[in-house]
Amino acid sequence: DFYHTSSQNPTMAEESLKDLLKLAHTQIAAYKAVSAAADTFQAHRQAAQRTLETCCERVRALALFSSNEEFEEHSTPSLSYLSLPFLLGDVIAANNPPRDDPERDEKRVAILREALRFYKKFLADLNSLQFPFATAEVLSPYVDHIPGGRRDREAKIAHMQSLKASELTLEELASLLEVADDDDELYREHVIALLNTQMLKACDQIEMIGMELAMLEQVAERRAGGQDLRRPAPVGRPEPPVVLTSDMVKHLSLTGQTINRANFQLLTNGFGPVGAPTMSLQELGDREMAEAIERQTREQAAQAAKVPQHTENSEAADDLEQQEGRQHSDYWDDHRRGEGNRHNMG
Length: 346
Hints:
Elements: H1 10-13, H2 17-32, H3 39-62, H4 76-80, H5 84-93, H6 104-128, H7 136-143, H8 153-179, H9 184-224, H10 246-255, H11 261-268, H12 281-306, H13 315-334
Helix pairs in contact: 2-3, 3-5, 5-6, 6-7, 6-9, 8-9
């Protein structure tokens, strides 16, 4: 059974499941608060993993979830325990063997595969309970994910927008719960929003783990074939870097010339084009729209301050109308009709 674990802590067995989950969150926050190189990192991480494994064993013993049920049939506290596989996957994926371990890569592969199993189980549980955001169409690319496979650019942008919107909804519900912590309906909405956010993050983790697994497996194949994984030493003196001046840019733009590939690699040190985009097209569009709205607001405010507002049929409005009339009359006193018309065509 998925939730069955061989490790059991007698002390933790006496605690309630709710208290165990609260303890796990505290331990997770403890290891995330320190650097991965800190001495206490692994101790906190291992403690969180043991607590989460005990929670999984308790859920299995209580038989909280069944494949023929829907999420509406479960209480809100029960739904919160659906996060256990996701949390356990995060904790396991954070385990990195020491660099001086000769079997580091093999151990890391085993760790990633175990974490991947928990992430996929989390997605399968949400789909089994028929959450509206966890349809088979959405999750099948990740549940059936092949290590090394990548989504196309449009799918990544759509996924990023969904995650951003879900996190914003989660923050709003959390702020409302601080004011009305006894609202059961609001608490349920918060738990469901949390599961939605965790689902989107699990999808990202599955893709990243798949990429790391593909890389590690490729390294293992090269080692098995006796290939040297070290970078070859440079032959001869290194080429001097190309300095791109403003005069060079002007000359290139006027002549239509381009920098050849060798000079381009020297210019960018192999890290891609100069001025590479640091935001998505959607983010750029949002920023330009906000700037346009702000500019329009400033122009309207300046226009409102420039033109005095007078009540219709008021004395000030009559004075303004008379002043404009005088200015119009003075103009035509000084200018003949057709003046300035070179062909004098009236």
